[in-house]
Structure formats: C-alpha cells, structure tokens
Amino acid sequence: MPSTPTPPAGVLAALDLLRIETEGPVSHIRLNRPAKRNALSDELIAQLHTAFVNLPQDTRAVVLSGEGEHFCAGLDLSELGDRSVHGGIEHSRSWHAAFEQVQFGRVPVIAVLHGAVVGGGLELASAAHVRIAERSTFYGLPEGQRGLFVGGGGSARVPRLIGVARMADMMLTGRVLNADEGQQVGLSTYLVEPGEGLAKGIELAHKIARNAELSNFAVMHALPRIAAMAQSEGLFVESLMAAIAQGDDSAKDRMRAFLEGRAGKVGQ
Asked: Domain range spanning residue 238?
C-alpha cells in the first residue's frame, strides 16, 4: 500500500516556486508558477538547483511535473532585460548548473509532460532520464524567431534525442511538434492519455526506486558518457562499470535471489 505523501522539511520547505512531496522513496517536484505557464525565472532556476542538491536522503527517484495547464513554457522573457554579454553567459551557466543536477544528480528523474514544453521547458525535459507525455503536449524551440539561442543545455541534450537537423528545423522555422510527433522522434519515451501522466510517472518512479542504487547510478552517469566516446574507449569504460556493479553487495544479493527462484523474471 502506498504511503501518504509528506511535505518538505528544512531548506526544501522554503522553495515557494516549487511544490514538493515525498512518498516513500519517490519525491515529486512540481513547477509552481501556473499563472505564468511555469515560465523559468531566475528564482525558479535557483530553486530547482537547490531542490535537486538537497533531495531527502531516502529519495531514490524523482517525478518532475508542472502545475496547471502546462509543463513549462520556457524562459520568463520579462526577466531577459538588457543583459551584457558577460551577464548572458552567467545566466546561461546558472541554467547549466541546475539542469546538471537533474541529469547527473543522485537519482533518476522522470519528467511528466503536458501542454507547452517549449524553449527552456524542452531543455529542462531533455535533462530527465525518462519522459512521459500526455496527448496535450506540444514541443517548440522558438528562439530563432526571438533573436535568441538556446542557453540551458539544449544544444547538447536535444540533438541526442532527435538529431541536429530536426532541432535546427524547429529553431529556424518555428516548427511545433505535437505529442504524437514527439513520441515518433524520441522526445518522449511514453505517450499517455490526458490526466494519466502523473500516475504513470509515479508508478515508474517506484519501479526504478527498487533497482540497486549502483545500477541506477551507472545508467545515469556512465551510459551517456560511454555513448559519447569512441567505441574502443567506451567498451573499456563499460568493462570497468560492469565489474564495479557486479561486485556490489546489492548485486550479489539480487543475483542470488534470482538463482534461488526468489526474484521475478523479465516482464514480471
């Protein structure tokens, strides 16, 4: 039986632009600026960074979603102002630091998407490890029409999902992809009906949380780096990671349970 969600404590309780609840090993973080379509202000970026650095110690997976009708409509343009080049670099790097904690933090992250996943919202979603899209979801990169360029890590992450040419098309022409198109090109890993995303996300998060911590860590940290290496170097790193993982006490216990018939088979 699932446990009752508990509100945040300590530093997490002060994050007013996020709604955070923990249910056993799963923390649920909601972007909480629905009147602004969860646009990413400087303060919201800072709070996201703080939240992922200070996850409860027992958290083993995170569900990330947006309050209201949209996941995230991107950069809060009202804060763009008249930044200098140096200020623009610092601003971009603050996004990099926050989203780095999503992708390469302590635990896997499942993003539940609905409505607008646009600009910085798509950059944030691309930092997650699993993306669940409801059929209301639409994706856009309007930076080209606004005289801007992605600055939250999108140029590094989004092409790894959909390819450079498709990302260039979205930025140059303003093309918007609907939920079905996003699923076809790899922006989402699951596609569900409206209102079903959060339940699916929590279900998957609890499943992921039952994995061995070291295995989850290897998938998060080693897999994307190996994929970016030349094959010979990548295979060597794979050997190292495989040896480390199988030597962990948790892995030995799990393998023993499987061989003794005490663990479920694939698909169960």
From this structure: 213-259
| Whether residue 242 sits in one domain with residue 123 | no
Residue type for 181, please? E
User: How far apart (Å, rounded) are the C-alpha atoms in residues 128 and 103?
Assistant: 6
198 and 240 belong to one structural domain: no
Q: How far apart are CA 54 and CA 211, in angstroms?
A: 21
Tokens encoding 227: 């994929």
**Is 203 marked active-site?**
no
Catalytic entry in 67, 90, 123, 203: 123
pLDDT at 260: 57
Residue 3 in any domain: the answer is no
The 10s digit of each residue's pLDDT in 79-128 is 877 788 999 999 999 999 999 999 999 999 999 999 999 999 999 999 99
Are 30 and 162 part of one and the same domain? Answer: yes
Of residues 220, 208, 211, 225, the one with CA closest to residue 62: 208
Based on the fold, state whether residues 145 and 229 are members of the same structural domain: no
Is the pLDDT score of 43 beyond 60? yes
- Is 123 tagged catalytic? yes
Rounded Cα distance between 122 and 74, Å, is: 7
- Catalytic one of 21, 23, 43, 143: 143
Closest to 46 (Cα-Cα) out of 3, 82, 87, 15: 15
How many residues are there in the chain?
268
The string of pLDDT tens digits covering residues 133-160 is: 999 999 999 988 888 899 999 999 999 9
